[in-house]
């Protein structure tokens, strides 16, 4: 952002925008029913973070069981939800930080640290879920962790990457605010 001459006033909303996209991906992961799905016909299993649904045959009625009855289900949902709530808090703080005319760079570094904590909680939930699901729930046929689970991992990766950006941005404070005298490379003939 700094090295190639992008002006701070033009690019100041890129990081909060990326955090907003991460929040949208987190909502999709929390609400999506595609954490685990049957891969081949007949499609007999579908699961979300909250429940596991089965049907005996193609065209049959789905029967759902809540995963909140299992301790690991509550742990996976709680840790992923805590990571998501921290991401929403970081999004709100980033909007506040970048809306103020005088940018507080230590405040931005704190947002980066909080994003790393959010990533740890999200990853804990994303690891607990498949490990315990595949050992505790009887699976039939070929199953795959699907699109909503992928959105969860995308959110966690975005939290890590944006955490680095928010932590490293204060290192370029003078360049961003325009306090550095430009260097001209001119050689006389």
Provide key terms for this protein.
five-stranded antiparallel sheet, 58% helix, membrane, alpha+beta, single chain, 6 helices, apoptosis, 189 residues, elongated
Compose a concise summary of this entry.
The chain has 189 residues and is α+β, with helices and mostly antiparallel strands. The protein is built from 6 helices and 5 strands.
Molecular structure report:
There is one protein chain. It contains six helices and five strands, in the order ααββββααβαα. The protein has helices at residues 8-11, 14-31, 71-99, 105-136, 147-168, 173-177; strands at 36-38, 45-47, 51-54, 63-66, 143-145. Strands 4-3-2-1-5 form a five-stranded antiparallel β-sheet. Helix 2 (14-31) packs antiparallel against helix 5. The radius of gyration is 22 Å and the shape is elongated. The mean pLDDT is 82.
Output the CATH topology.
Butyryl-CoA Dehydrogenase, subunit A, domain 3
Which residue ranges are poorly predicted, with pLDDT under 50 across at least 5 consecutive positions? Answer: none
Order of helices and strands: HHEEEEHHEHH
Q: Which CATH top level class fits?
A: Mainly Alpha
Overall outline: elongated
How many individual domains?
1
Question: What is the annotated CATH architecture?
Answer: Up-down Bundle
- Radius of gyration equals 22 Å
Mean pLDDT: 82
Helix segment tally: 6
**Tally of extended strands?**
5
Instruction: Please give the order of strands in the largest beta sheet.
Output: 4-3-2-1-5
Biggest sheet features: 5 strands, antiparallel
- Helical content stands at 55-70%
Sheet-strand content, in percent, reads 5-15%
Structural class: alpha+beta
**N-to-C span:** 33 Å
Family: Belongs to the TMEM47 family.
Transmembrane segments: 12-32, 77-100, 107-131, 151-172
GO biological process, one term: cell-cell adhesion
Keywords: Apoptosis, Cell adhesion, Cell junction, Cell membrane, Cytoplasm, Membrane, Transmembrane, Transmembrane helix
């Amino acid at each position: 952002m700094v090295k190639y001459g992008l002006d701070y006033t033009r690019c100041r909303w890129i990081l909060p925008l990326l955090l907003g996209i991460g929040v949208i991906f987190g909502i999709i992961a929390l609400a999506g029913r595609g954490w685990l799905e049957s891969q081949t016909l007949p499609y007999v299993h579908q699961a979300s973070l909250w429940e596991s649904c089965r049907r005996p045959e193609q065209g049959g009625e789905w029967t759902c069981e809540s995963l909140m009855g299992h301790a690991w289900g509550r742990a996976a949902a709680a840790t992923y939800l805590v990571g998501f709530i921290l991401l929403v808090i970081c999004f709100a703080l980033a909007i506040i930080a970048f809306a103020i005319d005088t940018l507080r760079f230590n405040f931005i570094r704190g947002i980066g640290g909080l994003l790393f904590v959010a990533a740890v909680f999200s990853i804990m939930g994303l690891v607990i879920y498949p490990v315990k699901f595949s050992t505790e729930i009887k699976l039939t046929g070929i199953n795959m962790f699907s699109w909503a689970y992928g959105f969860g991992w995308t959110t966690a990766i975005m939290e890590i990457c944006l955490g680095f950006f928010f932590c490293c941005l204060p290192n370029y404070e003078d360049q961003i605010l325009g306090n550095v005298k430009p260097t001209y490379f001119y050689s006389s003939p």
